[in-house]
Amino acid sequence: MSLQRFKSGTDIRGYAAEEFADNELYISDEFVKKVSVSFAKWLSEKQNKPISELTVSVGRDSRLSGPRIRDAAEAALSSLGVCVKDCGLASTPAMFMSVVDLPCDGAIQITASHHPSERNGLKFFTRSGGLGGEDISAVLDGAETESAQLTADAAKISSVDFMSKYAEMLRNMIKSEVNAENYDRPLDGLKIAVDAGNGVGGFYAEEVLKPLGADTSGSRFLEPDGSFPNHIPNPENSQAMGFIGEATVKSGADLGIIFDTDVDRAGCVDRDGTEINRNRLVALASYIALNGKNGGTIVTDSVTSSGLGDYIEKLGGIHYRYKRGYRNVINKQIELNEQGEFCPLAMETSGHAAFKDNYYLDDGAYLVTKIVILLAKDKTGEAIGKILAPLKMPCEEKELRFRINRSDFRVYGEKIIEDMGDYFGKLDGWRVADDNREGMRVYADREHGDGWIMIRVSVHDPVMPFNAESNSDGIKTMLESFYKFISKYDGIDISPLKEII
What is the pTM of this model? Predict the structure, then answer.
């Protein structure tokens, strides 16, 4: 069976808990060693450098399977003569920065992001950023023929406390940008609650905020625990957001911060418990990216709200709706900048935010550091509320997922998308969006729902996600119109739609 089954976009992922040892997606020591050898050979070719002269850093999130996978990866690399820098518990963005700052030729991060505790995986970095989907496929192809009979060379492995250096970088960023009278304690008087969800984000409270004077006493779940005993470390999870909202209000904090497991994503809560997530977080990041600039393009995924587009335009920017998938929006951002179009931010509604001035790296800690700087400069604790006041939020939102029951699901889904454009383009009260770069988005006038609906084909699965948004109370009206269109297709399961109309 091909190892390509472990490919998940730009990551390698599978099951890592021992009870899944018989699962075809189990990440065994043998598998990790083969993949690590293949990565070293791939990196050697890309760097035009002998394998024995390579330096590779290795880090991991808090998952219980992390040490086992780390040991297998380091054994494979060191047996080839690679100099291995073991960074221990580390965030995914920090592992990219280790390539820049240590420096290293490449990095491996052992993580499965926000996925359940029994899952794990590997991410790879070079100085050009994270490996793309084609690179991951090449590494997996190479692993097919590799041997796993390798013995670690302890002399080639050394421990490095890179997270302390990374935290120092963030502290210095706050100190220099706030430039307070008490330069070394710019966060004096601010109370900030952090919820790390027992991932690796606890360092942000202990090593970034507290040394700068912030009161972090309202923080929760800072200790790494890969069983995730309190909640899933995921800013998109309503239960997780509920925890940080409660902690923020209960402790009287000026800001609440929540990270996913490996800190490449973050969410926030304002002092009154209002979630700063999805479109609100994209809006706040857009303000940060465009403030003081003479315009610029903000790239987002395809499901962002109409109100966000208006907000970005009021900031003097251009809203460029693109495809779902954080690598898609970041790659488009890089492309636009290379073409001479200033694009300071790419952001997906899931919370992945990449700033041009931070190596196009999606880094949750970097994003919230920018937000903390806003608060520290303002001193009133009301900065975020004022900044987001002009953002028009929808009155109603709905997200559904329809399964496609066809072997050629992508072809079938794309035909539905094409037909949807033709159908609604001729329907009174509707118009097709002029920037459909993924799926089909159509707008309804006030009489027909006062909002928009959109359908697309999932990147990996035989599923068509459906989104709707209304500025009044028109969701049901729009869903009824959509049902008249979609009900004629027998290859798609629209039972979730039938249940609510």
Answer: 0.94
